[in-house]
Amino acid sequence: MVDENAKELAHRALVVEEIPNEDAVSRLIDFPHKYDDFRHLILDTAFVFTKSKGTGEYTGESVNWSKYCATAEAIHALGCAWQKAKRERKPDMRYVGYIAAGVADIRQVESNRGHRFQVVHAPEDGQGLHHAEVRYLPNAVAGARFESIDREELKLALRQKFGDLVAHDCEE
Amino acid sequence: MNNFCFNDDNRQFSISSFAPVSTGVTPGARSGYMQSWRLVESNQTAREIKRREAVVVTEVPDVDVAVLPGHAVTEEALSSVRNKAQLIELIERFKAEGFARGDEDLKITEATAQASSRLFEMLPLAAPLPKIAPDGEGGLTAIWTQTADAVVLVVAGWHVSMVVAAATPRAEYFDDLPFDGEHLPQALIEAISLR
């Protein structure tokens, strides 16, 4: 369960904090029931980074900052709440657990073409103080390519920094 | 030794064979004597054939051997055929239904489905198969981790790109891998060859 102090803090004016390298982040993982028979063939890259239809920019991927959501119990509680909310629209949705990584490890990722990630605190829009995002940080050098193959390589590198799934089965 | 495959003992087979002529032998030109033979037609059941010497009866494989032209029907080969069929079925579902991940419903385009299905169909039987997922932009990502270094392939419509030794300082990029649906890119074959 999310720390009550964290909830209290969320009601105060939101301050975007710097996430230190020493901290960790977790990522909630879902897997739809209907693809169970194909699970051995499906990539578990866990991150999508879709392009915003409005801005054309790539969206950040949600993670939970360990400062405000540190225990497995707290993270699973977020996952179960997520499942409950999503199932109103998608009955097949299933939260299956989370993966976690050190912030420094994510920030150290750099592809051979110089693309990286940033990890930022993102408590806006009622997401909660624990909410952070991993965002692309493309190579800013003029002429550097940032093609789909670059993005997919980055997703693989990012997944490699996260550990194994800490599995969970929400009680109905 | 003959391997004879069937699983219904009562099934009838038409047998053509040569039998020695019973009236004796005919003198040969050089070797002294030459046996005379005649063609014999008969119907036998599978059970009768089983009784023959040097005939080994094996189970019929549950995949038509016609799908493996030029390959021995081994368990590995059959498994590869099944997995490949499942991979292509998965691609069709990604196109038709999408794959829900996070808050997104990820679908692949018709062209991506066509190109990627064709590409995987053409992979050699001995080649390892990748894991796949929609890339979130209408394309399909395939990753091989059975190789020494990971190989990442993106199929976006009929445009194919690849990175070998992905996520390492030795990463090598192929931004426009030629693929016409008829010939597999040589760089891909080399990249996914198990070493």
Summarize, please.
The complex is a heterodimer of chains A (172) and B (195). With 172 residues, chain A is of the alpha+beta class.
Question: Which secondary-structure class do the elements of chain A indicate?
Answer: alpha+beta
How much helix, percentage-wise, in residues of chain A? Answer: 25-40%
How many angstroms does the end-to-end distance of chain A come to? 17 Å
Radius of gyration of chain B: 27 Å
Poorly predicted runs of 5 or more residues of chain B:
1-5, 23-33
- The tally of structural domains of chain B comes to 2
Q: Biggest sheet of chain B, strands in spatial order?
A: 7-8-9-10-11
Largest sheet of chain A: 6 strands, antiparallel
Helix content of chain B: 10-25%
The chain-level structural class of chain B is alpha+beta
Coarse morphology of chain B: elongated
**DSSP strand (E) fraction of chain B?**
35-45%
Count of distinct structural domains of chain A = 1
Overview of this structure, please?
The complex is a heterodimer of chains A (172) and B (195). Chain A is α+β, with helices and mostly antiparallel strands. Chain A has one domain. Chain A has four helices and six strands. In chain A, strands 4-5-2-1-3-6 form a six-stranded antiparallel β-sheet, sandwiched between helices. With 195 residues, chain B is of the alpha+beta class. Chain B folds into two domains: 57 residues, no CATH class; 128 residues, no CATH class. Chain B is 24% helix and 36% strand. Chain B contains four helices and eleven strands, in the order βββαβαββαβββββα. In chain B, the strands form four sheets. Chain B has a five-stranded antiparallel β-sheet with strand order 7-8-9-10-11. A two-stranded parallel sheet of chain B has the order 1-4. Chain B starts with a strand and ends with a helix. The N terminus of chain B is likely disordered. The chains are: A alpha+beta (172), B alpha+beta (195). At the A-B interface, helix 4 of A face helix 2, strand 5, strand 7, strand 9 and strand 10 of B.
